[in-house]
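To: structure desk
From: M.T.
Subject: fold request, one chain
Message: Could you run this one when you get a chance? Sequence is below, nothing fancy, just the single chain.
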Amino acid sequence: MRRSFEGEISFASAERAADEEIEEINNKKAYEMAEAALKKDAVHEEDFADLYGEENVRRDLERVAEAERVFRQESTPQSELLKKYSTIFEWTINERAELGDYFGENAFTRRASRYDDIVNGVDTILEFRSNPNEAKQASYLTLGIDDTFSTNAEVQEKKLRRIRSKIDSGELTQVKYFSSDYMNFRGELRNVPLIVLGAELRMVAQLRDLMLSRDNKSLDLHPIQHLLLQEAKMETGVFSGYAKRVGRADLAEIYRNAGRIIDEIIAGKGDFDREILQRDRVFYAMQSALREVFGKSAV
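Reply: Done. Structure tokens follow.
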């Protein structure tokens, strides 16, 4: 009997080890695919040397290199794993925003430059284009995605305090390096609203496996899009309300306009299972963080 019990334990341990090995292989493969796709899509600082001057761009790249050196020195196995998940999550959002219309049929994404990621906290730029039968115009929403998997509200608070500080200063997020073929524009974006998007690691792992298998049908129907839209709706409302309370009416209107776009997208998606909001602990951590940073009545 004892041998049988020990055999069961040995088998269970081997099974767990095999599952962990498969998980590591999937993470490595998906991370490499994500890195390649995002690098191809990213804005590259060197392409702006004629606009900002070679010396200016060189200084920015040196600042990036120094920040990345510090990141490497302070990295841990856990932070490296979270980096992989962050990259996979960003890859999924960037691709499915366009191929799966996660943010509506008029939304297009661009991965921010490494400089804007590190200095301005911007991972992805969403460009909302006008309808084909309307005059050509675009509005922008920037996304912070890195390390947004924590169910600890204090981790989310750090990102939100940065947004509150920008509102208090009277100026929203800046994107130094940006180009849009659609708007025939190349240069700097100013006063762009920033929001923070996240989900539990279990959901990111689901997305990873679907991206690896290229199961586009399941990706198109995945509830993550509703979760992200509800986070965007919640945050734009809170940030707009806060800006109004502190006398920044112009910034309040910027976030209010972003909220209107999100509301239209949500309306076009139709009903969804709201239990996904109740089940996702990151969503609740974000609610708690918003109350802590912007006031108890914020949400």
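Reply (cont.): The chain has one domain: 37-294. Let me know if you need anything else for the meeting.
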